[in-house]
Amino acid sequence: MGVMTRPTASTDALVLRAWPCGETSAVASLLTRDHGYVKVIAKAARRPLSTLRPLVEPGRLLTVEFSLEPGRELQYLRGGGVELDPLRGEPTLERSAYLLGALELVDRCRPAGALVRDEPDGAADLFGVCDAFLRMLSSPAGPEPALMFFAFEWELLARHGLAPELSLCCVCGRPRAEVAEATRRFSAAEGGLLCGECARGGADAGGRPLGQDALDMLDALEAYGLGGPERLMPAPTPTARREVGGHLHRFLGYHLPGYRLPAALDLLRAAKVSGHEGNGS
Ligand SMILES: [Zn+2]
To answer: For residues 229 and 124, what is the distance between their CA atoms, to the nearest angstrom?
Structure first.
């Protein structure tokens, strides 16, 4: 140890994005358990034998060590190891697309500034959600990727204090049991369930009908979060899935500034439309 010990962070991290820098280096954007979003430079990581090379692949869960110098936009990645690679083996197009979609979503939810210094608990919480999602996605026995992704979206919303309200009409407060099934609506702008009367009264900008199957799915997501998909018995119908996917997507778009459908999922949707699900949206 020298006289000046250089401050170092040692924590778990998820690689959100990585890109080349200079001749042989790479820069990676990380979500870390203890320090929020951190950008690191991995010197010479693109050399074949570099020990940093496996640490700059998007989607991997790592243990990492990096410099922790306040005020620096880029920290130095010093070392670490791969805890989990969700794309090892032969990942399906679906699994890859939902993984990339989740990374894009988390990357886009970042606050301004490189480090989330003022909100360490929030960072750990967000990291925990990502960690759980990636472990489920990597498990061959796990639930379907689409259902896991919905649960992931729900958990992100809940983490921001924005989870949709399902127990009562968001406008008049009427309990759900008193809202006739056929008149139920789901409104991103109002924050969740909407009764027919309030919808007719004009409080339904962008609202959509909310079917029983879709509501059952949303209930499971609310009750169990990422543990929800496994409890959906019988499995949700394709109609209910599409409906829930649409509701969550509009909800995220309305409440998280900067959110749009992750490009990876656009690709998946395009592949499906050109394949067997011919009637699209
Ligand atoms: Zn109402």
So the answer is: 23
How far is C-alpha 198 from the chain's CA centre? 32
Q: CB pairs under 8 A, 24+ apart, for 2-8?
A: 6/67, 7/67, 7/68, 7/69, 8/65, 8/66, 8/67, 8/68, 8/78
- Render pLDDT for 121-176 as a digit per residue (tens, 0 to 9): 677 888 999 999 999 898 877 788 888 899 999 998 888 788 999 999 999 999 99
How many whole angstroms from 198 Cα to the centroid of ligand 1? 4
Q: Model-level pTM?
A: 0.86
**pLDDT tens-digit series, residues 123-135:** 788 899 999 999 9
Q: Is 22 left (phi over 0), alpha (psi -120 to 50) or beta?
A: left
CA of 185 to the centre of ligand 1 (A): 10
Rounded to an integer, what distance in angstroms lies between the CA atom of residue 180 and that of residue 138? 41
Distance 251 CA to ligand 1 centre (A): 19
3-state secondary structure of 172: coil
> Which stretches within the chain are classed as H helix?
93-108, 120-138, 145-159, 196-200, 212-224, 238-255, 263-274
* Structural domains of the chain ordered from first start: 9-89 (2.40.50.140), 143-265 (1.20.1440)
Angstrom distance (rounded) from CA 225 to CA 154: 7
Q: How many Å apart are CA 84 and CA 79, to the nearest integer? A: 16
CA-to-CA distance for 105 and 208, rounded, in angstroms? 24
Rounded to the nearest angstrom, the distance between the alpha carbon of 176 and the centre of ligand 1 is: 9
How many whole angstroms from 189 Cα to the centroid of ligand 1? 14
CA of 224 to the centre of ligand 1 (A): 26
Cα 180 to ligand 1 centre (Å): 11
Cβ count within 10 A of residue 193: 26
Quote the CA–CA distance of 219 and 15 in Å, as a whole number.
31
